[in-house]
Description:
It contains 12 helices and 13 strands.
Amino acid sequence: xxIMEFNPTREYAAFLDKNDDLKEFREQFYLQPGTIxxxxxxxxxxxxxxxxxxxxxxxxxxxxxxxxxxxxEHPWFFxxxxxxxxxxxxxxxxxxxxxxxxxxxxxxxxMIATFYKPTGKKTKIVxxxxxxxxxxxxxxxxxxxxxENIEEHxxxxxxxxxxxxxxxxxxxxxxxxxxxxxLPGVLYRSGQILDMKALTKDAHQRGxxxxxxxxxxxxxxxxxxxxxxxxxxxWCNYKxxxxxxxxxxxxxxxxxxxxxxxxxxxxxxxxxxxQFDMETSLIQAQNVSAYxxxxxxxxxxxxxxxxxxxxxxxxITRIREKSMQLTEYFIQLYNYxxxxxxxxxxxxxxxxxxxxxxxxxxxxxxxxxxxxxAKGVVPDFRAPNGIRIAPVALYNSFEEVxxxxxxxKTIMDEKLYExxxxxxxxxx
Length: 428
């Protein structure tokens, strides 16, 4: 299905929903009556499949006790690899290159500890100033283990407008003193997609290793990490992939790096056939499993079995297509209905450059978000003045997009936001 025209009516939204070939997946999710949930790029909703796989793991604990590590439908000892194989289909990698382990921040620390090898003048790590702060903090702390003055060893990519980068902005930072690059696949505020394939080629031509934070791109855009020759990537699984709050994260390491000693080792870094030999020196796995550390958090891993089964059943290609249609439709309605309310649209209008959300800015953004919540709409506020709107392909509809725009127009027309303070909540 393609949006071939624009028609600013509710009837047209209903027509689009009727012709949506993913509409049956909506029934698989727990949707709250009277609520339109447009915050799936922060935390995806619970699906019935994810609930079932969590309950199944709990039952295996009940039935098998410690033997659950090797018995039952999903033996725990191999669960991280099993989930990794499902994730590999989504990120375009070989199954042995992807593992479900750790968290976004823990996995980034592991990758820097493993692949940051400063030598001679090549001591800098490139990172962008618009990146999610956890990446900045991890880079800074890792550099602090090597140097007293860390700022001398960070190369920031600067944005010309505070929302986007040009390809040239990024390549210009790839100077001869750079040892490692860490970039997002999609910028978490504006939703701009970076050209990971081209940037990887540019970095490798200069002898620089490069890795990507896929937190806002995994599950919202298509990837081919293996074929793009990306060195490593890391991401959370609780946003577009609906793995649940605190879900175990994902990690990709290209097979060309297998055998590289993990910077942060633990007993789950072991070759599984040797792990319980309890040797005093690590015999590391010869695949991505080597970059695990401790025992996996099984209850935070289990929902991913069902969530990813559902996701792969729909297929990333169809999900990406509908995601683009939903956000394009929002932008069309925004232009038609909301052009006179001092909003600014600060996300790419080109579908090929935009991830899975729309980003609006407004001087009263914090209280506009509160007014939306009071009207049953769940958006996402991002400091200092941003509103992220994320209609999700698997469970949101075109009619919901239409309704949110009408609610937003009413809020602005009637100045309903003025009853709220223009400041963020503790968790925004």
